[in-house]
Amino acid sequence: MNREHNWTKITAVANIPPQEGRSVTVGEVELAIFNLHDRFVTIENRCPHKGGPLCDGIVSGTSVVCPLHGWRFDLDSGAAVRASLPACVTVFPTRVEEGIILVDPSAGRRITSEEAAA
Amino acid sequence: MSGATRRLVVVGNGMAGVACVEQILKRKHDFEITIFGDEPHVNYNRILLSSVLAGEKSAEDIVLNDVDWYRENGLRARLGVRVAGIDRAAQTVIDDEGRATHFDELILATGSSAFIPPIPGVEKKNVHVFRTLDDTRALLEKSRKGCRAVVIGGGLLGLEAARGLQLRGCEVSVVHLMETLMERQLDRDGGAYLLRKIENLGIRVMLPKQTAALTGNGRVEGLRFASGEELEADLVVIAAGIKPNAELARKAALEVRRGIVVDDYMQTSDPHIHAVGECTEHRGQTFGLVAPLMEQAKVLASTLTGSRAVAFTGASTAAKLKIMGVEIFSAGSIDESEPGIETVRYEDPSLGIYKKLFLKDNRLRGVILVGDISDERRYTEWLRQDSDLSSQRRHLLFPPPVEDPGLEVAAMPESEIICGCNGVSKGTIIGAIHEKGITTLSELKTCTRASTSCGSCTGLCEQLLRAVAPDFQEETRTTLCSCVPFSYEQLRDIVKGQQLKSVQEVLNVYGNRKGCEICKPALSYMLDMLWCGGHEEDRSARFINDRVHANIQKDGTFSVIPRMRGGVTSPDELRRIADVAEKYNVRMVKVTGSQRLDLLGVKKSDLPKVWADLGMPSGQAYTKGVRMVKTCVGTEFCRFGTQDSTSAGIELERRLENLFTPHKVKMGVVGCPRNCAEATVKDIGMVGQEGSWQVVVGGAAGKSVRKADLLITVETTGQALEACELFFQYYRENANYLERTYDFVERLGIEKVRKETVYASEQERRSLLDRLQRSKTISKDAWLERETPVNPTQFVQIQPIQSPALKETII
User: Fold this and answer.
1) Where do the DSSP E strands lie in B121-276?
2) What digits encode the pLDDT tens for the residues B754-771?
3) What proportion of chain B, given as a percentage, has pLDDT over 70?
4) Is B517 within 8 Å of A24 when comparing Cβ atoms?
């Protein structure tokens, strides 16, 4: 299996203002990309609770709060923070090259439920 | 009666002297008391001066006893008068105006002064000490944004001063002679943890550094160290320790070593002269912390009022750093070299927690806590009672978990000290609650003095009140959230006082830098309201509704409600609404309860086009702001109408629309008391009757149902509109974020609201209206952002530059 990344060029960094997120659909997946000042992170744009658009949430440090019912996810691990049940969203590798954000939509990673519970 | 009185003179109006007087007043006594104080202020809480410097408290907040207290207790206060000498033979004190005051008993409570090390240049301008309210005021005046401040001294006071100056916007460096910060309270490892925390706050720490000279021509310009290095400075604060003020005693030939020597009953070498506080030396020890002074005060009060039942045998040396986010507690002896001492420690570098206990023969001798001081009380009790800890050895560092937090206070013995500063036990507090019928924390403070010094026992006092006082009333000051742990009132003062203009600035200086979904929108509102729009708008700190000016729905689409003032529309508007609904496939058109039309299911990227096609202003249905004014048809059509409610409602909506409020504001105007547009259950309502209007506020018909309170009855529509505006602005300025008018009015009471709005002085009313006008002038219809959005991609659906199918060709 080819372990090389399938980096896909998404958009110019300027299109996502600091501390905000934007959604983008790449193939089948709808992603939410966030600008954390020092780096960009990407998660799936769908809250596991009721499907809320996470890209529209308020960023708090390195987590985002779903605009519908306030579920909070760590943007690095994808794990829900302070949720009543262990839950998580998929996190996608993200990097910036020459002012363009690149995401690998095929290398999404989801922490296991044991990790989430811990 | 008067023949039997004895004259007691107290020299010193500080915490120790006044604490002793308070203790005497509590007992049966025959004294006529005169207090001399060389500071021209009433008695204040010196340990909170750092909070005044930090802008967290005002000078008034730290007053312990106001002028009335002196008067009510028949005390003669000679403030701003220095005592120059004591004539022991004649039993008089001589003040600096040459007047003699006779005493039967004399208390010296002269305190201490800042120790100024003999460094060349300390006399230069802008070199200060930090000891009194006047010093603090001087520092407040001198410190400003960008000012380079250097604090000499890395002890408790120096660090607190440094943080205070930093909060004033200074660039701060701390220069310390020793290798460890707070070396009297911390060991080397604890000091390293503290160092990291202080540096993380953005304060530069230089140690070990010996200052050789302060340089500059008249005004200080920098420091030169013994190593030859130099450091530039605009302001220097010396916090290198304190020295007892013993001059007066020395001149009177009392026994003085470092401090005024006292025995276990606080008596000096003259049986009619006593001393308490930081000026004393007891068994070779001098004092600089508040708890032992309070104990001394009690011992002396008891001695003077006739009993030597209580003796002072030295006291714990518990110290706590009062810097938010840097928790340090140290108590007892931390000398590891003492034979037989064993230490138990725990540390977690990434959490910044360090705990170390010093034990001897299964008894606690000393403790150091850094980063987590939640067990401070437990250790203080172990020290105080000299408890045998054999049975606790497995739980020394972590107490067994408590299931119900209320149990903690319930499980405490009656004798346990709740307020360590003032030595108030649980039993005393419970007694006071029962006997005096105390129901609030403020009453408890006044009555027992508990929680009036450092304030760290406030939580416990509240728990006790909750458990014991049948009619306990929570104080209304609640903090915004854990990111910015200040009350709304404090934050408003801070934002105003420190001229903070952006959410991130507030979070950086007073919070955890991150913020969350609770504090960010609240701070955004506060900045907009206080600066009347002259703040730095940060859309990332706003809820999505306030970024896109529409209300997010469960499927991520939005609802659009155009403004329809007074619920009045026209065929032309209705046609445009119908066209928009068809053009953008709006899933539902709904008549709302607010006499408006709602277009549901609009995509974010369509919003600007929808607004443009509607050609109507935003109805603010998505935000904490002015929703609508519901009206009836009034005299225009109704055969019962007594006032033109429709025109009045439209005018009210025009005057207030586009403004933001702590929570949504719904209004109603009705033309007669039949109340067809339900004005009496609105946040603000106008109820017309023959020849007058009633203005009502604080009504609700949602989650709560509440009939509005009458604010005022006036004759003309103009007066009624003005009353609405006064209340509206008052609510904007004084309510907590997310507090609806019905909670706000209930919290304050309608009498207070009336007094501060419609019945306030002409000048106060004028300034409320002026501020409203200023906000109104810069406010605008949010939907105009369709032309120039704050962020260019706000409404754009980003399309990927590449599609992943092409990936093979790229790599």
Assistant:
1) 127-129, 148-152, 171-175, 204-206, 211-215, 222-225, 230-232, 235-238, 242-244, 260-262, 273-275
2) 999 999 999 899 999 999
3) 96
4) no
